[in-house]
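Just curious: can you write a single protein's sequence together with how it folds?
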Amino acid sequence: MFRADLANVFERDDGRVVGLHHNDGRRNGELLDTDCCIVFEVEDFRITSGPEHFLDLHDWDQFWPWVSGWRDAARSTSIVRRRRVRRVSAGAR
């Protein structure tokens, strides 16, 4: 089980939009309970970037261990950013 509950959305003067949410879940005996935000960069009404920031990155990595390894391996090639932008953009339609 995994759930992300949107708490608030803010628009900044520089064109960015920040979505605050709380993630909680249970998986294979691991518990997730952390606040997060996604900072969307918007150009011409399209999301061009959407990095997610976690209040407790350790908690997130314990719950999703394969994401942590994938993120570390891909950091230098920016694969993570391209995939995240595609996923966020696809959900915004």
In short: The chain has one domain: 2-91. The longest strand covers residues 30-43. Helices lie at 57-63, 65-74, 79-91.
